[in-house]
Amino acid sequence: MTNRTLIRPGDHRVVPWKNGGGTTREVAVGEPRPGGGFAWRLSLASVAAAGPFSSFPGVDRTILLVSGEGMELRFTDEVPPRVVRVDRPFEPVRFAGETATTCALLGGPVVDLNVMTERARATHALEVVREAGRRAVKVGMIGIAHALAGATWVGGERLAEGETLVVRYHGCVSIAPDAGGATAWILVEPASTARPLAGAGPSD
Description:
Number of strands: 19
Largest sheet: 6 strands, antiparallel
Number of helices: 0
């Protein structure tokens, strides 16, 4: 496998939420704009208290619970307001970043994995891999593997839990989590060649 970048937890950049209500660890960012913005971003958000999430107009997002008891999301600009419980680890929830959302914790603080793509520039799909298999990465795509639980092998490279591999590669990539483990596999591609993301919801 060629053109790959290994990212360890110590490489993450800690940034405040847009609304100042929490912090996010940026894992990887694609095509950042001067002064802010990006085509895509993978991050880990720490949610320590109830409150509103930031708004990301024009951005499609997927989150999944990594640690903690979970949270309840209320989409306040829907009639009637819709409530979604995010309390099962590693189950993706997709949404639109402009939806007004508030969060209530079900227990203590939580950490969730976030994938975001600017709708006009890119789209994404997230799959949680629990058994060994092969995934295709086509021209124009970016593949991102993040070891959620336990170690995983990605194309011959071993990732420890919490490590990430960004792959720019044309072909098939083998992914083999350790027994009982789980790996997030994210494909990012240009918006002009991809299907739109379904669903609606919050932001951090």
